[in-house]
Design goal:
By secondary structure, this protein is α+β, with helices and mostly antiparallel strands.
């Protein structure tokens, strides 16, 4: 079929409830989307009024310029604007239907005043008037009625503090029921250039500093709006935040798209973090033995399932504290390994990278790095961090359970099997496309595979 005979997609109205209620994982995301839209329209002030029967969100931005353009979805028209623009495809306004059944828009764009409403079935016909007919000042007022659930004001305030703390620190104003929203007390908004991504010539800015209580977890911002927290290097004592506008948030803005730009960003961020001091983490022989068993199972799974794991930078560099951020060039491992600069307990002190290579073995197609973390129950006992890190969280209660002395609990490795199976699925780049049911089915398949490898299940 020639290009001239192609017809555009037509979207049925049944898709709108799906986009409104399932793209965003929390109703709190709706408040972020409303505030983001206000900032994108040039407002430096957003006022929220929340009661038991309605929510009002008012801004002092440019107003809605075109009714017809406003009610379109899926067009990335905002990205052509100068400066930092948070929104992209116009889906954020749909999220407000998560909060209530009817959303009213009143706007003043200095040329004309408009008022219309939105429900799951569509938009009402707009009413027009003088520019100040509905809103006295330039800007937009959104009123959400027939609320679906009671709103906890304290939860909204904390969410907005986290999402917009940097913007508030730089002069933006957000209030809830007349009370100003302040940045989280631990946020230091001082910003400097950390490094430049050569692939796109984009500066990455932020504030990272040595912190004896730091866990090596970094808050990631895009357009100076919080997206997610990521484990960068849990072996090191540091904390802080970074902003990188070359990253692409997922549609829900609760995570980052795991593309080449993200992998390049993470690689340079880990290199930058190598300047911070290493923690001393004692890993005894039993924990290493568990890691070896899990590693062997995972290697077999990756090979037999033909999983394409993104290969990251395998060249090493020595960090300022004397350890290695990744394997040394002459000992490069094309396989799964534990880092050599983990501080082992006495029986294993001094193990070299070459010895680790013999201990863990290798595969021929990918580099997956095992780390030991001390993050308590905030993280699972074993978990995967894209693009290529697996963490054994030694202070998690379930990880400790694996080493309890009892024949009733079975061998150590089998107690970690549910978490290893989850990692085995997540490590596949295609797993992000799975529905929850499909994901769980893959986890079951991985579990059966591991049990067969140990000759516990037979075909």
């Amino acid at each position: 079929m020639s290009q001239t005979s192609m017809y555009p997609h037509e979207i049925g109205r049944d898709l709108i409830p799906e986009l409104a209620t399932r793209v965003y994982s929390s109703r709190l995301d709706s408040f972020r989307e409303a505030v983001s839209n206000a900032f994108d329209e040039g407002s430096r002030q957003v006022a929220l009024t929340i009661s038991s029967h309605r929510i009002v969100i008012e801004d002092w931005g440019n107003g809605i310029s075109s009714y017809d353009e406003f009610r379109r979805f899926g067009q990335a028209s905002k990205k052509s604007r100068a400066g930092e623009v948070i929104g992209e495809k116009g889906l954020g306004k749909l999220s407000m239907l998560n909060l209530g059944n009817i959303v009213y828009f009143e706007t003043n764009n200095q040329k004309v005043g408009m008022r219309f409403s939105m429900t799951m079935t569509g938009f009402s016909k707009p009413a027009y008037g003088k520019n100040n007919a509905f809103v006295e000042h330039r800007g937009t007022r959104i009123t959400i009625s027939q609320l679906s659930k009671k709103i906890q004001i304290s939860e909204v305030v904390f969410y907005l503090q986290r999402a917009f703390g940097l913007r508030i620190a730089n002069g933006a104003s957000i209030s809830v029921n007349g009370q100003p929203v302040r940045p989280i007390s631990t946020l230091d908004p001082k910003e400097s250039v950390l490094f430049t991504l050569p692939r796109c010539d984009m500066q990455v800015t932020g504030n990272l500093k040595a912190d004896k209580n730091g866990r090596g977890i970094v808050d990631i911002y895009v357009d100076h709006v919080f997206v997610s927290a990521t484990e960068v290097d849990t072996r090191r004592s540091f904390s802080g935040w970074v902003n990188c506008n070359s990253l692409t948030p997922e549609t829900s803005r609760n995570n980052i798209v795991q593309d080449k730009a993200y992998r390049d960003f993470i690689r340079h961020l880990r290199k930058y973090a190598s300047r911070f001091p290493l923690k001393t983490t004692a890993i005894d022989r039993a924990k290493l033995q568990l890691g070896r068993e899990l590693n062997t199972l995972l290697k077999s799974y990756i090979k037999d399932m033909n999983i394409d794991v993104s290969r990251e930078q395998a060249n090493s560099f020595k960090n300022k504290s004397g350890g290695y951020h990744c394997q040394h060039k002459r000992d490069r491992m094309q396989g799964i390994m534990v880092h050599a600069n983990t501080r082992y307990s006495k029986p294993l002190l001094g193990r070299t990278i070459s010895e680790e290579k013999k201990f863990y073995g290798s595969t021929s197609s990918s580099v997956i790095r095992w780390e030991y973390a001390d993050l308590g129950n905030d993280k699972g006992p074993i978990y995967f961090v894209p693009p290529n890190m697996i963490y054994c969280n030694t202070s998690n209660d379930l990880f400790r359970f694996a080493f309890m002395k009892s024949n009733y609990y079975g061998p150590t490795w089998i107690r970690m099997l549910p978490y290893l199976a989850r990692v085995a699925v997540e490590i596949n780049k295609e797993s992000i496309r799975l529905t929850p049911d499909q994901f769980n089915q893959k986890v079951d398949e991985a579990t059966r595979y591991f049990l067969k490898q140990k000759n516990i299940l037979v075909n």
